[in-house]
Design goal:
There is one protein chain. With 382 residues, the chain is of the alpha+beta class. The chain has helices spanning 8-25, 29-35, 40-48, 67-78, 82-101, 104-115, 230-266, 278-307, 312-337, 349-357, 366-379; strands at residues 121-124, 140-144, 147-158, 165-171, 180-186, 192-194, 208-219, 223-224, 268-269, 272-273. The chain has a 4-stranded mixed beta sheet. The longest helix is centred in the middle third of the chain and has 37 residues, at 230-266. The protein is globular, with a radius of gyration of 21 Å. The two termini are 40 Å apart.
Amino acid sequence: MGGTALSKDQLALAEVTLDFAQEHLAPHAVAWDRDKHFPLDVLRRAAEFGLGGVYVREEHGGSALTRSDGVLVFEVLATGCPSIAGYLSIHNMVGWMIDRYGDQAQRERWLPALCAAEKLGSYCLTEPGAGSDAAALRTRAERDGDSYVLTGVKQFISGAGASEVYVVMARTGEGGPGGISAFVVERDDPGLSFGPDERKMGWNAQPTRQVILDGVRVSADRRLGAEGDGFRIAMHGLNGGRLGIAACSLGGAQSALDRSLAHLADREAFGAPLLDAQALQFRLADMATELAAARALVRQAADALDRGGPDAQRLCAMAKRFATDTGYTVADRALQLHGGYGYLSEYGIEKIVRDLRVHQILEGTNEIMRVIVARGLTEALR
């Protein structure tokens, strides 16, 4: 977890989180992946350590940590299991959105249970026909007196079916981002159902399903913010979500690098430890250097988000793109360094590779991250 100097409190936070990851995540990660098991008991145990409401204010049961603290937490968690760490990042994004944009009654209604992981949260933006072009979403919320009636389908929703709280983006107005509003839907609301659990390349320790809204009626007090604020709320949530996923990539890749060092120290070829081979040392040096660069960018972006800097969105996009690309590349190289053993499930390296691959897609594809960065560069010239 090296890089920019950490405070004593952050070092203590990292140590406690690492102990949790090593005790409760790492020993079970391969089995959870194999069995497609979502460990609800472990998520609730994580909440006992303050990991259910990382960014939520203390008055509602949260830990009130900064984004700079958060990227440290999720990097360390992902050394144990990127899939579970990734879901916790999304769960915490939901909690932060309700804390930041909800009114007092909404915060009191949902946040204590979310922070305790007595209830889990899911973020519902993507649709079958509206992925990267989020402003093109078609799910509608029609006003009917003091209620809204939601109809539509959300796609690739992490935690769907197991989660009790869904932050749903739906269209209340005309086309484009200005016609979108945000709502909190509960699992037991009539008309809410789920598609089958998707069969995926990775992230198998958490469910991914469609969320189907068939005339789901919710009272107006389920709307977060004003009508038309939904797209802004969604994008602000994604700034932090992108940092969480970037941090998870760092943690997964760091674990793969650490395992490679141990493996090469333990193996011999042509009468000498593999770790003595300069070509392999150079590969390890490159992996460590690239991870350090990615970590520095993630922490810079987290600091900008904490400060509310004007460049925060652009830096979050940069960090997400660079860290997830780097994390996947480092994990893939680690698999190569393990030779045939890297391809075996029991060693856990191929699982890290599969888990980190989706990080380049979710929370906005890395192609969209480039669009955001390029837009920030070119707008200054117009």
